[in-house]
């Protein structure tokens, strides 16, 4: 074990102190949101900034789940996140695997076309007309199919596949394995770090997305969670929040904070289990172009 000098110990202590302060600065806003969501209105008005409530009430959460359509929005968002992420990863892998083979005919033009889409898009109006012609308007599938493959994620996975030793697949072919068998039984088990990273990218994107639903969906029953949350935050006087505020129990602000917590906590729960794969997956998938 290397013995640190006094100067190095002081520097290390200063670094830890700065990191702790920065961590608290990042954590305090979220603690404030959680605290306000469970604090009675009278206490919020009296104390102003609340981090540790003196008393608790969960009426704001009751209002969020009962009166603002959060339950149905949760179902749509869970469907979008789970099914969408599974399809995203499947089709991205299916596209990236052949593109990682340098002997693939037309490989370079395909890659140029894919990279081109990372910098330029068709625009909102042409995309809307395309979605309408495909009959996807007011359908939950419109939240998944148009963004089935991310060019950035495809390039990351392709780079990871290119780094795997070619001898592994050659030995599999000698044993009689097909390309799909090699992909399923050999390549994918070796690619779990990058697959976990890409899966979390897709899942967080689905969970937080709202603009496509606003553009392509008119049915309120098909709106995802983030759209409903947006409506709660922008609506200054919803009927349910007014009735609560008039009772003096909880404020509309508490209802808004409860909506923020409800939409954020699921991702916060999932993220720590996937975070350890981030650095390894991204680095191993981005060394080669």
From TrEMBL:
InterPro entries: MetI-like, MetI-like_sf. This is Protein LplC. The keyword Cytoplasm does not apply. The keyword Transmembrane helix applies. Keywords: Cell membrane, Membrane, Transmembrane, Transmembrane helix, Transport. It comes from Paenibacillus nasutitermitis. One of its GO terms (cellular component) is plasma membrane. Belongs to the binding-protein-dependent transport system permease family. The gene is lplC.
